[in-house]
Amino acid sequence: MDRFFEDFNSKTQQAFEQGVKLSCLSNALEKVKIGFYEPINFDTYYSTIQSLSALADKIISIIAKPHIQVVDSEVILRAEQASSLSPNSFRETMRDTGLWKRKQTGTMSPEYVHSVEKVDTIDTYENRFIAYLIDRIDEEVTKLLNDLDPSFASFENYYETRGISFSPNMLLSSFETNKPIEGVFDVNSSIVGQDKVFAELNKLKRKNTKMMESEFYKRLHKKDVSQNFVPTNILLHDPMYNYCFRYYKDNLLGTNRAESQTEQAYQNFMLLSFLDYLNNEKLLPGDTVVRYENGKIAFEPFSFVKGVLTFNLEQDDDGLKVVADYKGVEYYNCLLITKRTYNPRDVRTFRERRGLYFSHFEKVLLISMENIAKDFANCLTISYHKKDIKERYDGFLSSLSMIFRANKESALERCPVCGSSKTQYHSNRMICDRCGSVYALLDGGQYIWIKTFRRFSRD
After folding, report:
1. What local confidence, expressed as pLDDT, does residue 190 receive?
2. Which of 69, 134, 233, 434 has its CA 20 to 30 A from that of 196?
3. 3-class state of residue 351 by DSSP
4. Res 1 pLDDT > 70
């Protein structure tokens, strides 16, 4: 768990452990100085990357010339190659009948014998520690990449899209073509040293790759180790090994918190930031109480009115349920689930999970702080490194409120999203068999409420 979330959870517990009415939410947040934005401190990242890079240099030196240990290795040699046998080797040879051969005289004698040789090995306690440390460096590099990737100035990160169209309403129609486009790739140009941070991180990645491709690592990284390493003579007195051991104790020991703690901390952040947004929009009811219980933000179900819709919010084990009602008749179920970092390897799992939920929910949205997977169509990015949390929640509520004036006959015959005629009516809603979009006809067909754009959409 990073420092921001540790501090956030501590303040949240302090503010809400006794329960706070939503009408007093602003005062509770202000009292303990709970905030939802913190700029990226590139100086801190640069310092961390430099220290990890120095550690990697020491490990690369160790890999080039590691401490070795002389051990006895049992081997089987031809009898004429073996020197004098130890008592144990003699007993093993006597028991192993497969090594014996009958001579022409009829007597039996060993053709091969068990023996013991002295061999050098790098499989030592200290070297297993170094291999473990390489794994920890790899974890830290992955965390750094995840933390910094959203800040990298790229077209997809800026617009949160993977492509453009060529219609009159296309994204590029807002650009001036008679001069270079500004504000995309220089989005963070005012932050001194950002380029230096990415350059240093790339160097660290190359060192990490070199360590993990070494024969040293391949031979030792699967060996069993305990994270409670004890200081041996080599770890204490060899300068290279001691540097690594001290770095581990001072910077890495005890920092590998359970993933569930990090996920819960982010879920608390999302829930409180959403409640703060609703409060600033003057949409919260006054009497509902929010509490901090067993490490979690909890509140009783409540509702609010925005435009022509009534929204109902309720927590359950899966996430946050948002139900929208139109004049108390039509309803729209949406489920919000959270994941602090949404990696490419998570995409398939999330899509399978969405498929399971679709029997109960018309929209399933993942809220993440770091959308590394770039699955923009199905993910809402809420990050304490972004100032636009309000605009993002505005967009979310707007996506649940897409009500358009329409013609009833056309809406019954054609899907308003993809134009397909393969639609069917089911439980007060229309479903498109082609794209999976879900929509409803309101007020006798005067309006269309588009509930879901392409159920299994991919951008």
Report:
1. 44
2. 134
3. helix
4. no
